[in-house]
């Protein structure tokens, strides 16, 4: 899991793209003996996921902990399965109507497999900040979390620039450059002829115009 100094936090107005999880009567969880709570299942990238929430913290007792988990209901083509994911987790600011987005700054892409089914943040948010009314995360005993899970899959689309295509591009660019150079030479010769004509016919004007 990401260390606190490897976490990137930032505000945004757009809601999470994949899942929003609202908790009412948060005090019932906080005051109970429940240490770990899993959300309902949501789908993203062809796989099923859950949010895993620790109201009293998992790695630290003074922080909320929040993770995304790949669900056991998924089926895989082989036993050595793995799913590469870019993910963000969110908490909603009910006062400012925006979201605090939290992501892994050091390794934004994580691999879920049979050995590691959860990734997230043991120090997602301090309990002091979460419980502070002016922060807006917990109001009227209600809070909202969210997730974006982008599955990175191998693409079936690729492109190749052949030798023939490369030569065609070079020839085309060469012709363009040749035309530009030719036009430039004509323009330079024209200017020189005008200068010569002016200096020959009206020497004083040539001096005044500084054409020599």
Automatic annotation (TrEMBL):
Protein name, per record: MATH domain-containing protein
Superkingdom of origin organism: Eukaryota
Domain MATH: 16-149
Alphabetical list of SMART domains matching this protein: MATH (SM00061)
Organism: Citrus unshiu (Satsuma mandarin)
Pfam family, one: MATH_2
InterPro entries assigned: MATH/TRAF_dom (IPR002083), TRAF-like (IPR008974)
Lineage summary: Eukaryota, Viridiplantae, Streptophyta, Embryophyta, Tracheophyta
Record SUPFAM superfamilies: TRAF domain-like
Gene3D superfamilies per UniProt: Apoptosis, Tumor Necrosis Factor Receptor Associated Protein 2, Chain A (2.60.210.10)
């Amino acid at each position: 899991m990401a260390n606190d100094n490897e976490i990137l936090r930032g505000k945004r107005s757009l809601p999470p793209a994949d899942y929003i999880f609202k908790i009412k009567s948060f005090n019932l969880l906080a005051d109970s003996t429940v240490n770990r709570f899993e959300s309902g299942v949501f789908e993203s990238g062809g796989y099923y996921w859950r949010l895993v929430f620790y109201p009293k913290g998992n790695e630290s007792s003074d922080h909320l902990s929040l993770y995304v988990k790949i669900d056991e209901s998924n089926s895989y083509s082989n036993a050595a399965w793995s799913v590469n994911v870019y993910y963000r987790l969110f908490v909603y600011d009910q006062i400012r109507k925006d979201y605090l987005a939290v992501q892994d700054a050091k390794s934004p892409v994580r691999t879920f497999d049979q050995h590691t089914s959860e990734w997230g943040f043991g120090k997602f948010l301090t309990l002091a900040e979460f419980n502070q009314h002016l922060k807006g995360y917990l109001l009227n005993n209600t809070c909202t979390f969210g997730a974006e899970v982008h599955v990175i899959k191998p693409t079936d689309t690729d492109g190749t620039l052949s030798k023939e295509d490369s030569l065609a591009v070079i020839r085309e660019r060469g012709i363009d450059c040749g035309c530009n150079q030719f036009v430039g030479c004509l323009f330079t010769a024209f200017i020189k002829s005008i200068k010569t004509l002016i200096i020959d016919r009206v020497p004083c004007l040539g001096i005044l115009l500084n054409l020599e």
